[in-house]
Design goal:
- α1 crosses α3.
- The chain is 45% helix and 12% strand.
- It has ten helices and seven strands.
- The protein is globular and about 70 Å long.
- The protein has a three-stranded antiparallel sheet with strand order 2-1-4, with no helix packed on it. Strands 3-6 form a two-stranded antiparallel ribbon.
- It folds into three domains: 1-123, no CATH class; 126-174, Orthogonal Bundle (Arc Repressor Mutant, subunit A); 184-243, Orthogonal Bundle (Arc Repressor Mutant, subunit A), CATH 1.10.10.
- The protein has 276 residues and is of the alpha+beta class.
- The longest helix has 19 residues, at 97-115.
């Protein structure tokens, strides 16, 4: 729930019950049984979690994960993840598919761990990915730096299930796949920004960011300065020299104006809807 309000729902039309909600309250619907909904007066976010994510989180090879329906409950982990999804949606999904794949997998783990009717405990994997698998992952990331990259695609490239890969990857690198990919994109961006004649928009696109503003915001959050400031500082240091040693070939800073935004592409979640 995105704010306070209420929903009337129940198993039959004549047995509706009113539930009052506060912001961050959660509800978990039954996947096979429909419910009657009466007056709905609460801003909310509805998220569908895929069977594949739930199965991977439960380490099951077939069947389905049965979750316990609840019309009102609190879960700090699920609440934080839902808040992250809402913020991403409000911003126009600038972080791409891998971010939402990672959030979906984290939600699936939290659901299986705390809200499954029957499940085997999620296994905590020991060890990590070997050097050969890490090398394949790095090669895949650099080959698809400009494109969408999903968690499933990364896992399949090294022959692992999505959930197992995510745990092994973090064990090996200390980062989630999304954090690792983001760092690789920023490292490439830094290298491109050291060229004085490149446009910030071109750098953003080449490094897999959907919009220039999102690239600038992420760069500032991680590096402490904007891409333009980073390039100005770097090129300025290189261009500083005594007048008699400077030549016409000395790099000069080119400052770009505002650029049009790029459009984001499809959503990886099974469903991602807002309601009022």
């Amino acid at each position: 729930m995105l704010g306070p309000g209420s929903i009337e729902w129940g198993p039959t039309r004549s047995a509706l019950e009113k539930f009052d909600y506060a912001a961050c309250d959660l509800a978990l619907c039954h996947r096979h049984e429909g419910e009657w909904v009466g007056l709905m007066n609460v801003p909310h976010l509805q998220i569908g979690i895929s069977d594949a994510a739930l199965m991977a989180a439960s380490d099951e090879s077939n069947g389905e994960v049965e979750l316990r329906p609840q019309r009102k409950f609190r879960d700090s982990r699920l609440g934080a993840l839902a808040t992250a999804v809402h913020a991403e949606m409000a911003a126009g999904f600038p972080s791409g598919r891998l971010f939402l794949d990672s959030v979906e997998q984290a939600m699936a783990v939290a659901l299986v761990s705390g809200h499954a009717v029957r499940h085997r405990p999620v296994q905590i994997s020991r060890g990590g990915l070997g050097p050969a698998r890490l090398r394949r992952i790095r090669e895949l990331i650099h080959a698809k730096m400009e494109d969408e990259l999903s968690l499933d695609e990364m896992a399949q490239s090294v022959g692992l299930s999505t959930a197992h890969f995510a745990r092994m990857f973090r064990k090996s690198t200390g980062e989630t796949p999304h954090q690792f990919v983001l760092r690789q994109r920023l490292e490439r961006a830094k290298g491109m920004l050291r060229a004085p004649d490149g446009r910030v928009l071109d750098v953003a696109v080449a490094c897999g960011f959907k919009t220039q503003p999102h690239f600038a915001q992420v760069f500032r959050d991680v590096c402490g300065i904007s891409p333009t400031e980073y390039r100005r500082d770097f090129v300025g240091d290189r261009a500083t020299c005594a007048p008699e040693t400077c030549s016409e070939d000395t790099p000069r800073l080119v400052i770009c104006g505002s650029q049009p935004e790029l459009h984001s592409h499809g959503l990886p979640f099974t469903s991602l809807l807002t309601g009022q």
